[in-house]
Specification:
The chain has eleven helices and seven strands. The protein is of the alpha/beta class.
Amino acid sequence: MSTLANAIDPKNGTGDWENFKIPLERIFEAAAQWKQLLAGVKRPWLCWNVSPRWNQLQQRLVKHVGWTPVVGFDPRVGPPPMESESVLIDFNETFGLPLMYLHFPLEFMFLWTDRLAFWHADLLCRLSVMEQLARKFEALEDGQTTAVLETGGRRNYLNFKRHRFWEVCGCTTRAASENQFYNGCGWWRNYVIHPKCTLSEERRRRQRLYYDHGAGIMLWKKSYHGPVFPISLRLINEGHCSEIMHAGAYKQAPNHKTDMRNLTMELDVNYAIDEVAANLGIAHLLS
């Protein structure tokens, strides 16, 4: 397969080292541009757009707690309407990928900001929860990370190899992100073949561990003494509008089981944002 074909493979944007073919030098060059766009922003919070109304509400929630919404977007959807003081970054501008997950810029956070809060596009929170999260994020010292601890449900509660720190919600700092990257323990899947993990013995050891997003952060905590502070899943579950949290029959869009999953369609079909916002006491932020 040619280099060009590799570069436009959708899986390059999903945060998976197994499918990543873009030279790291291009990432570093692009991140220098992202950094310029955030000059002077002290408390950036990444909001990934897959549906404009959901993203606008996320922006307003972030502004409520005194942070600056940094808006990235799935290239299949494009940018949403922007709130005043929000910062739009096209993280895909340099690469032209068919799709991109928030994991893409999150992995390289140390290159473009000092502190970054983040959450999934399908997460909304009560104002009291937002305020609690903001305090946690602001209290982090450089070198520390916080994220949701995910244990894989009851059947995996004692299967510690299955546990991970889930990027559904969290915050990280420059020194933490840099240390994670150079130890090959970031947010992407299949960190066993991270470009900074080159020892065959270490790769064999990692093959016995869980492969998914955020499992590398758990490895960083356990094997490299990384200071990661867990956020309880119970704190944010109420507003997590995911397939897992759907009480009825979840309507799946085409390609649901693949990286090309249409989250935009699934989110709007399975959840009414007006109803979700009302249940969380934040409906006034929709108007």
